[in-house]
Write a structure and sequence with these properties.
- This is Cellulose synthase catalytic subunit [UDP-forming].
- Residues 585-681 form the PilZ domain.
- Pathway: Glycan metabolism; bacterial cellulose biosynthesis.
- It catalyses: [(1->4)-beta-D-glucosyl](n) + UDP-alpha-D-glucose = [(1->4)-beta-D-glucosyl](n+1) + UDP + H(+).
- GO terms for molecular function: cellulose synthase (UDP-forming) activity; cyclic-di-GMP binding.
- The N and C termini lie far apart (68 Å).
- Helix 6 crosses helix 17 (409-421), helix 7 (177-188) crosses helix 23 (670-679) and helix 16 (378-398) crosses helix 20 (480-501).
- This protein is an alpha+beta fold.
- 51% of the residues lie in helices and 13% in strands.
- The protein is built from 24 helices and 19 strands.
- The strands form 4 sheets. Strands 3-2-1-4-8-6-9 form a 7-stranded mixed β-sheet, sandwiched between helices.
- The protein folds into 4 domains: 9-51, no CATH class; 54-114 and 124-146 and 425-500 and 513-581, no CATH class; 164-379, Alpha-Beta Complex (Spore Coat Polysaccharide Biosynthesis Protein SpsA, Chain A), CATH 3.90.550; 592-679, Thrombin, subunit H (Beta Barrel), CATH 2.40.10.
């Protein structure tokens, strides 16, 4: 697919022709531009030579001193490259990381698995398989994310008469109307010719209040007489009774901006073989990790890596996934593959796979053009991830991307990595318990000296950490991936393994959104696996300390290495426990931070110019001069603006003081609510300002944050346990 390649911001920053980086890049580009590289023989020779050189680097045997010197030199080069802007430096870091990791894996299989005792073999081979899985995911992940495409919007044709018709589908099942209405309001305000825009609520709950709401607004309301195949079946039923050329799909809590269609549809004009375009899923409420750990808007959340880097990397290989919402699909080709896939519970990704098998293009546009509600509790979050994991395992079992027709090599690897990712449950549990095999049973999972283990394993881990920090730093901080996996590992392990054996088991579950948590509590049910693993690791650490001071002997170094590993696992498990401490959430409609011009109009005719601090569908936070005194309960009107438009909304003061005013809207009509949505949630720039603009990752700082949260989790667990033991 032909796409305008644009340089990254860090490449532009060092564009000075006199800088060493620019000179080096000029030399490299000159070499790569030699005509000899156009000759097939030259390319084959270069590939063979590079492979032989890499094989030599990976397999050459070195003693302890040689391995240490080699590792230090390689890592010093990686650190130097990490300070050098540009994609060429990133690719060089990837090569160094692959070399270090491949060298470690080669050493593991050739020098460390000569087990002579059954216990050593049982634990040792289990760890080797877990490491092999992690190594495969690392390699494919580099392939997937090394060169994000960074697609940009394409302008729409000036002739509006050529713009196609679009059906907007908003599927719902058991969500309250309060959650759905904002999505409907914003969908109605999409900047698109009104005679070619058709909004439909697909109500699988068949509720009277939804029908009446849609009738009053004049939007489509579709139902069916069954709930077969859940969301996929709901959309497929709507496809039979609607007729527009394109379908835009939004989960009922995902609120589109007014610009969504104009920003996205241009690519369908530029690429006539394009059938699906996906945009990021952005959330204006904190997920359980962000809320319970107090990291909202301070640290990237669990999903940002996928939408910030992975999907953009997939796009380079024409393997962008459909994610079920915030996407546009061309009807003709969707019907050609039988509609939304119903064979698995991740119907969205499976649908994109089917489209790719037929040779159609898919695209990803990393421009936030909709935002929704995150899962409201850790149990709900875990349930959602279980469904995703089960569905990807079902696809791997029934329609594996490595096999079958229609996919190119890059597409196969991108889809394979998406499915392999959700098999991390068992390997993660192995890593969380592996050092205990030595501490409890004296099992040697490595048949090598402790110093050799350190000399090979440490470079592998260090290179992977700094390289991934370089690639992912805007959207995932170091060590947090281990926290996310530790929280979910126990829960996704069984569904994934079962689905891999019998893909027909399991069903679609709807993720609850828009609820409240009226009282803080510790979720003992969801935390039980983490608590058990934490206690086992603490006991293992105590055993290690006892051995260290009693009978370590010649194995002191081995003992210390296993104890350090155990301490790291304790920190991860402590952080997992902290996530299970649910904090209070009393707002059913989260507020969105935004500074917008506003005018307050009082009943006596006086006006006050001010700005908003935040908004929700029920009220506003306003920044006013500190000397302004507006009594609680005062009735007033607030004006909001967009270009030449002004919306006036009656409100009541609910908070007043210290330069801040809180107001609650007063009995807005449906059409006033729709107008409010177009001036707030549906603004074109509503979600761009907070997307990938946070502090970049620094591995040591991230490690410190994980340690602090891990200690906090253990403190919360101790306090909760003592509190539960007190007589009532």
């Amino acid at each position: 697919m032909s796409v305008d390649q644009r340089p990254q911001a860090d490449e532009v920053a060092d564009a000075d022709s006199h800088s060493p980086q620019a000179h080096w890049r000029t030399v490299v580009h000159a070499i790569t531009g030699w005509e000899i590289w156009q000759h097939p023989t030259a390319r084959v020779v270069a590939v063979v030579f590079s492979a032989l050189l890499m094989g030599l680097v990976i397999s050459v045997p070195l003693d302890l001193q040689g391995q240490i010197l080699f590792s230090l030199g390689s890592f010093a080069a990686a650190l130097l490259l990490s300070k050098t802007p540009g994609r060429l430096s990133t690719l060089a870091m990837i090569v160094l990381s692959i070399s270090a990791s491949s060298r470690y894996i080669y050493w593991r299989f050739t020098d460390t698995i000569g087990f002579t005792h059954w216990m050593d073999a049982a634990f040792g081979y289990g760890l080797v398989l877990a490491e092999l899985y992690a190594f495969a995911v690392l390699l494919i992940g580099y392939f997937q994310t090394a060169w994000p495409l960074q697609r940009r919007p394409v302008p729409m044709p000036a002739d509006v008469s050529t713009w196609p018709s679009v059906d907007v589908f908003i599927p719902s099942y058991n969500e309250p109307l309060e959650v759905v209405r904002q999505t409907v309001f914003s969908a109605m305000s999409l900047d698109w010719p009104k005679d070619r825009l058709h909004v439909y609520v697909l109500d699988d709950g068949r509720r009277t209040e939804f029908r009446e709401f849609c009738e009053e607004l004049g939007v489509g309301y579709l139902i069916r007489d069954n709930n077969h195949h859940a969301k996929a079946g709901n959309i497929n039923a709507a496809l039979k009774v609607t007729h527009s050329e394109y379908i835009a799909i939004f989960d009922c809590d995902h609120i589109p901006t007014r610009s969504f269609l104009q920003v996205c549809m241009g690519w369908f004009f530029k690429d006539t073989n394009l059938v699906m375009l996906q945009t990021p899923h952005v959330f204006f409420s904190p997920d359980p990790f962000e809320r319970n750990l107090d990291t909202f808007h301070r640290m990237p959340n669990e999903g940002e890596l996928f939408y910030g880097i992975v999907q953009d990397g997939n796009d380079l290989w024409n393997a962008s996934f459909f994610c079920g919402s915030c996407a546009i699909i061309r009807r003709k080709e969707l019907l050609e593959v039988g509609g939304i896939a119903v064979e698995t519970v991740t119907e969205d990704a499976h649908t994109a796979l089917k489209l790719s098998r037929l040779g159609y293009n898919t695209a990803y546009l990393e421009v936030p053009q909709a935002a929704g509600l995150a899962t409201e509790s850790l149990s709900g979050h875990v349930g959602q991830r279980i469904r995703w994991a089960r569905g990807m395992a079902q696809i791997a079992r029934t329609d594996n991307p490595l096999f079958g027709k229609g996919l190119k090599f890059g597409q196969r690897l991108c889809y394979l990595n998406a499915m392999l990712h959700f098999f991390y449950g068992l390997p993660r549990l192995v890593f969380l318990t592996a050092p205990l095999a030595y501490l409890f049973f004296g099992a040697h999972v490595f048949q090598a000296s402790a110093l050799m283990i350190t000399a090979y394993a440490l470079p592998h881990l260090a290179h992977a950490s700094v390289t991934n920090s370089r690639i992912q730093g805007r959207f995932r901080h170091s060590f947090w991936n281990e926290v996310y996996e530790s929280v979910l590992a126990w829960y996704i392990m069984r569904p994934v393994l079962v689905a891999a054996i019998n893909p027909k088991l399991g069903k679609f579950n709807v993720t609850a959104k828009g609820g409240v948590i009226e009282k803080a509590y510790f979720d003992w049910t969801i935390a039980r696996p983490y608590v058990v693993l934490l206690l086992i690791n603490l006991v293992g650490m105590a055993v290690g300390v006892w051995k260290l001071f009693s009978s370590a002997g010649d194995e002191t170094t081995t003992l210390v290495i296993n104890m350090v590993w155990t301490v790291y696992n304790i920190i991860l498990l402590g952080a997992s426990v902290a996530v299970a401490s649910e904090t209070r959430q009393i707002r059913g409609t989260p507020r969105v931070a935004a500074s917008l011009p506003a005018v307050i109009r009082f009943e006596n005719g006086r006006t006050l110019v001010c700005k908003t601090e935040d908004f929700s569908q029920h009220g506003l936070g306003l920044a006013v001069p500190p000397d302004v005194d507006i009594p609680m309960g005062s009735r007033l009107a607030v004006s909001l603006f967009r270009s030449d438009e002004e919306g006036v909304f009656p409100a009541i003061v609910t908070f007043s003081g210290k330069g801040r005013l809180g107001v609650k809207f007063d009995n807005l009509s449906l059409h006033q609510q729709a107008e409010l949505a177009s001036l707030t949630f549906a603004r074109a720039d509503a979600w761009i300002a907070t997307w990938g603009t946070g502090q970049r990752d620094k591995p040591l700082r991230s490690l410190k944050s994980v340690i602090v949260i891990g200690l906090r989790g253990m403190g919360q667990l101790t306090a909760t346990a003592f509190k539960s033991l007190k007589p009532r």
